[in-house]
């Protein structure tokens, strides 16, 4: 098969220079594919569901919209939302039990297809590890392939904050995780798939970015990526061309 030579993904010109056909080629030959979770792998935003469960849904949903739109830093938005929710360990566990996250149609088949091709699959989320691990288990993704934020609780189960040292707690954190994965595993071609601004900014160091609008369309993301899909079936069809 003819292999094209690509200019490395650099933020200043990536979205102008990387064509649709180049992005598709990079996806077909990716060694690793990294998925955002909230509004991508699952239908909902985990933090919004937690807020609704704790009775403060409206205030937190608006802040999530601002964070995903890029109008405030991710860490600031995360900190402010959690200070409103102040969930207990018991509330988090009950949410997962009573309202488990709903997988986006087609994602299970896509992940299975990637695994069959020996492509490594990672979940990189600004959401909470306790929820994302539940999703990873459903998709047969190893838990050591999960990168997400950790909630902290006091010994009595009350909310005690979040682990601010995690790279996923910051804007640019998903890119830091991808850089680490490339260094640790020697990956040359890594593709990031997601719906939000924090996913878009992970390229670079990701080789390519694919915007996903199957659950929510964020115009500023759609306008800035060369390949924007609204179903995982589109990606599965592309893999079948190999």
From TrEMBL:
Pfam families named in the record: Hydrolase
Keyword presence, Cell division: no
Cofactor: Mg(2+)
Regions annotated as coiled coil: none
Broad EC category: hydrolase
GO biological process: L-serine biosynthetic process
GO cellular-component term (any): cytoplasm
EC number of the protein: 3.1.3.3
SUPFAM superfamilies: HAD-like
Keywords noted in UniProt: Amino-acid biosynthesis, Hydrolase, Magnesium, Metal-binding, Serine biosynthesis
Domain of life where this protein originates: Eukaryota
InterPro entries according to UniProt: HAD-like_SerB, HAD-like_sf, HAD_sf, PSP
Active site: 36 (nucleophile), 38 (proton donor)
Iron found in the keyword field: no
Catalytic reaction equation(s): O-phospho-D-serine + H2O = D-serine + phosphate; O-phospho-L-serine + H2O = L-serine + phosphate
Gene3D superfamilies reported in the protein's UniProt record: HAD superfamily/HAD-like (3.40.50.1000), Phosphoserine phosphatase, domain 2 (1.10.150.210)
Membership in a protein family: Belongs to the HAD-like hydrolase superfamily. SerB family.
Function text: Catalyzes the last irreversible step in the biosynthesis of L-serine from carbohydrates, the dephosphorylation of O-phospho-L-serine to L-serine. L-serine can then be used in protein synthesis, to produce other amino acids, in nucleotide metabolism or in glutathione synthesis, or can be racemized to D-serine, a neuromodulator. May also act on O-phospho-D-serine.
Full protein name: Phosphoserine phosphatase
Source taxonomy: Eukaryota, Metazoa, Chordata, Craniata, Vertebrata
């Amino acid at each position: 098969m003819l292999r094209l030579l690509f200019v490395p993904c650099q933020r200043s010109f990536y979205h102008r220079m990387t064509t649709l056909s180049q992005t598709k080629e990079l996806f077909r030959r990716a060694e690793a594919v990294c998925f955002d979770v909230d509004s991508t792998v699952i239908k909902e935003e985990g933090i919004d569901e937690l807020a609704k469960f704790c009775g403060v849904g409206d205030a937190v949903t608006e802040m999530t919209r601002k964070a995903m739109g890029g109008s405030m830093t991710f860490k600031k938005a995360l900190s402010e939302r959690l200070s409103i929710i102040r969930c207990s360990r018991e509330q988090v566990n009950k949410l997962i039990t009573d309202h488990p996250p709903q997988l986006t149609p087609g994602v299970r088949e896509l992940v299975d297809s990637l695994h069959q091709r020996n492509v490594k699959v990672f979940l990189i989320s600004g959401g909470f590890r306790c929820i994302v691990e539940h999703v990873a288990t459903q998709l047969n993704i190893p838990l050591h392939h999960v990168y997400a934020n950790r909630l902290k609780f006091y010994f009595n189960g009350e909310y005690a904050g979040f682990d601010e040292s995690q790279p996923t707690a910051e804007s640019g954190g998903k890119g830091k995780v991808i850089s680490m994965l490339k260094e640790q595993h020697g990956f040359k071609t890594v593709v990031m798939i997601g719906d939000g601004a924090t996913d878009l900014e992970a390229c670079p160091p990701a080789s390519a970015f694919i915007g996903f609008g199957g659950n929510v369309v964020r115009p500023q993301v759609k306008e800035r990526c060369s390949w924007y899909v609204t179903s995982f079936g589109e990606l599965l069809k592309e893999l079948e061309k190999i």
